[in-house]
C-alpha cells in the first residue's frame, strides 16, 4: 500500500489579533485541526509562512518549536489528556514548572472552580471536571495563546457551556488570545470573529459585533 | 477466519520487535532443550553401547592375591554369568628426564573373547602374549600417550619389584572403566601427564610383578535378574582367605561415577535451563497479549457485536502466542539439531568415548514442539481471557483513566512532599502497574543474578587455587613402602632442600553408625608448619594430640559430628587389616581431596606400628628445584614426586572450559534481561504514548520526557539489581549444593561459594548497562512521536 498525500490546507491566509476570541468552524476534514496544529507549533506547513509576532515559526527548528509551545501556548484538548498518575494540582504544577512566571496553581484551580477537588486523580473526576483541570493546566503557564481543540466535544451541552464560560473568563482575566476549533456552529455565537472552513480553505470570516455570553449559547 | 488471520498478521507486523524478542527467548529455550536433550540421549546411548560391547563388569573384587583357580569357584556362584581374574597395580614410571609418573598396570587374559572388561583398541595393534624377540608390549590410554608424546614403537620404563622394566608401546586403547582415567577420588581432574593406564597381557604382568599363577582382582558379569548383593556376599566369602581389600558395584567404579555424574548434570541442565526460558517467554507473552486485548477493547466489542463468539476472538489473540511458539520451536529445533551434533562430538571427546551414537532424538523434537506450543497456548488463553468480560455496547465507550488513589509511599508525608512532580509520577506509575513492574523487576533480578552465577565460579576457583598454594611445601614425595622416620635424613640432607616434614598416609575405611566411607588418613608432625588446616569458617586448626581432624566431605557423608567415635579399618594392599577406634576432634575443610588429618603417633597407633612414615613434604630453595627433582628421581625408594607448581598448572589448564560456560551464561543472562526489559518498555511506552505526547505539546523537550521515563526505569532497574545481587549469591550456593549432591565425584571436593566485591560491582554495572540499552531501544520512538496523531485518536 503506497502513501497517499492528502492536502489538508490550501492557500490559507489569516491574521489573529492579540486578546481576541476566535472560533474556527468546519465539518470533519475541513482542515481546521491542521490549522490549529500549525498555530500550536505541532505541525509545519509544507509551504507558506507562519508568524508569531516577529518570529517565523515555519522556519523554526524542533527545539525552537518546543520552546514556543512551552512559553507561549496553552493547549486544551477534546480528551483532556491529563496525566493519570498525577492529581489535579500536580497536573497544573507540572505545566507551571515549565515557565518562569507561572500563575499560582491554587489560584488557577480556584478560577475553574476545582479548589475542593485539587487532590483528586483524573480517574476520580467527571469529564467536565477533567476539562476544567485541563483549562487550569493550560492557563497556569500564563500563555499568550490558548488553543482549544473541540473543548466541549466530549461533554454534554450544559457542562460544555460551563467550560466555555470558564475559558472566556480566564482568558479575559489574563489577557490571552483564545482560538477554539469546533464543528459546533452554535459556539460561534460567543466569538468576536468566526472563521468558516471547508475542504482546506477558509470560506468565510464573520465579524461579530455583539458576542453572546457563553451561558446563553444554545445547542 | 481469513480476515482475522490478516488482522493477526498486521498485529505481528506492527509489534515485530516484541514478536522477535519473545521468539528469540523461546528459540533459545528450545535450542538448549533439543541440543542438550539430544546430547544427553546420545551420550547415554553411546555409553551403554560401549559398556555392552566391551563387557563392562557389574562388580569388582580386590584381594591382596589369590590363585587363578579361584575364578572357577566364583563362576560357580549362582547369578554370576562370567568372571575374569586379572592383576591391577600402580607402579612408578620413569620418564625420559627421570621424572616420575604412575602407571596403573592392568592385565588382560588372552584371548579376550568373552572376558569381562575387555579393552577397545584405538590405534596401533593389540599386544602379543609372547612378542617376537622377547620383551613386553603395552597399550596406553590415549590421554597419557598424547600428554607424554608416545607413539607405537616407543618404549616406556616402569619400576616393578625394584627392577626397571622396559615396555614397547604398540598402540592406544581404552575401556569402559577408563573413560575417565582418574587416579583416585582425591584427584580433582584426570592428570594425563602424571597418571596413565598401562594395558598388558596377563602373563606378562604376572611375570613382571612376580605373581605367577596369581590374580589380585576379580571382575564379574551378573546373569539377568541376579540379586547383586547376595552374589557379592557369596563371592566375598570365597575371597576372604586371600586378603579381601574391597568390593564394590559398577556404579561406585570411579570412571562410571564421574560419567554418571556428568550425565546427570547434563540431564538436569537440559531441563532446568529451557524451563527458565519458556517460563519467561510465557510471562512476556502474557503481558503483551494482555495489553493487546486491553488496547483493542473496542475492536473486540465490535467483533462481538458482529457475531464472533468468545472462542473465535480468544483464539485470534492466542494464535499470536502460538505463532511465537511455533516459530520459536522451528528455529530452535533447527539450531538445536545443528548444535547437538557438534556438542555430541565435544562431549564424546570430553568423556573419551571412542564412538558416538549421533542420532536426532525424535522424542526431544516432539517434546520441544509440544512444550513450546502449549506454553504459547496457555499464555495466550490466560492473557486473552479478558475478552470474555468485554460487553459490546460498553466497549465502544472510551475506557476510564487508569488507577486512582494514593500509593503507600504518600503516607510518608515528609518524604513525599520533598519529591519533584516527575518523581511522583514515576513512582505512582510503577506501583499502579504492579504486574508489569513486577515482571520487569523479575527480568532485571534474573539477568543480574545470572551474571553473578556466571562470574562466581571463577572467584571460587580463584580462592581455591590461592588456598591450595598457601600449603607451605613445594614437593610431596611418596615412598614405595613405609620407612623409619630416621631414614628421612637422606632426603633432608639433599642440597637445596631447606626443610622436610615426614608424612604417614594410611588408606582406610571409616565406619560410623552403619555407614562407611573410604578415606585417606594423613599423619603429620604435631607442630606441622607445611600443611595448613582450616575449619569450615576458615579459622586455622591445630592438630590434636590424639584423635582425628576429619574432612568435611567425609563428615558430611557419614553424618559424623565432633566428639563422635568412629571405627577405622586399614586398607593397605599388603599385610593384615587393622581395626581401631578414634575420636573425631574437629572437622577440617579443604577445597580439594577427601583427606583427614592426625598426628604421626596416632597414624602409627592405628597401623600398630612405631615411627613409620610413608612420605615427606619438602621445602626447596627455589633456585635449585630442578636439581632436587633430579636427585629425588634417582632415589630408588621414591615412588612419586608431586610438585605443587606443576600440579596447579595442570589443574588450571583444565579449567578452560569454565570460560566457555561463563560466556554461555552471560549470553543467556543478556538475552533474557534484554527481552524482558525490552518488551515491558515497549508496552509501557505504547500505553503511555498519549500521555507523553500531551507532555510534548505542553512544551516538554524530548530530553525532559526521556528523563521522565528514565527515572521510572532506573527506579526499577536499581531495585532489580539490588535484589538480583543477593539472589545471585543464593543461586550460586544452590548450584554448588546441587552439584555436590547429584554427583559423587564433586562431593569429594568442598566448594565454598566465594564472590569478590568486584564481581558484584561488575554484575551490577553489566546489568544496568544492557538493561538501559534494551530500554533505550524500546523507547527510541519517543523522538518521532507524532503529537497530532496520538492526541487526535482515542484508542
Summarize this structure as a short list of keywords or feature phrases:
heterodimer; A: 219 residues; alpha/beta; two-stranded antiparallel sheet; 31% helix; B: 795 residues; alpha+beta; nine-stranded mixed beta sheet; six-stranded mixed barrel; elongated
Structure write-up:
- The complex is a heterodimer of chains A (219) and B (795).
- Chain A has 219 residues and is an alpha/beta fold.
- Chain A contains 6 helices and 8 strands.
- Chain A starts with 20 loop residues before the first strand and ends in a 12-residue tail after the last strand.
- The model of chain A has no long low-confidence stretch (mean pLDDT 87).
- Chain B is an alpha+beta fold and 795 residues long.
- Chain B has 3 domains: 1-57 and 258-389, no CATH class; 58-257, no CATH class; 471-653, no CATH class.
- The mean pLDDT of chain B is 84.
- The A-B interface holds A 33, 37, 40, 42-43, 63, 66-67, 69-71, 73, 75, 77, 79, 81-86, 90, 93-95, 97-98, 120-124, 137, 141, 149 and B 398, 400-405, 421-422, 424-425, 428-429, 432, 690-691, 693-702, 787-788, 791-792, 794.
What layout of secondary structure does this protein have?
The complex is a heterodimer of chains A (219) and B (795).
Chain A: E1 21-25, H1 32-39, E2 51-52, E3 55-56, H2 62-72, E4 73-76, H3 88-96, H4 105-111, H5 127-140, E5 145-149, H6 157-174, E6 177-182, E7 193-198, E8 201-207
Parallel strand pairs in A: 1-6, 1-7, 4-5, 5-6
Antiparallel strand pairs in A: 2-3, 7-8
Chain B: H1 2-14, H2 16-53, E1 59-67, H3 70-76, E2 80-86, E3 88-94, E4 100-108, E5 120-124, E6 136-140, H4 142-147, E7 155-160, E8 163-174, E9 195-201, H5 202-208, E10 214-222, H6 228-239, E11 244-249, H7 254-295, H8 297-306, H9 310-350, H10 362-383, H11 386-389, H12 392-395, H13 413-417, H14 421-432, H15 434-470, E12 475-484, H16 489-492, E13 497-512, E14 515-524, E15 548-551, H17 552-558, E16 565-570, E17 579-588, E18 595-599, H18 600-606, E19 612-620, H19 625-634, E20 638-643, H20 644-653, H21 656-687, H22 689-698, H23 702-742, H24 757-778, H25 787-792
Parallel strand pairs in B: 4-9, 6-8, 14-18, 15-17
Antiparallel strand pairs in B: 1-10, 1-11, 2-10, 3-4, 3-7, 5-8, 6-9, 7-8, 12-19, 12-20, 13-14, 13-16, 13-19, 16-17
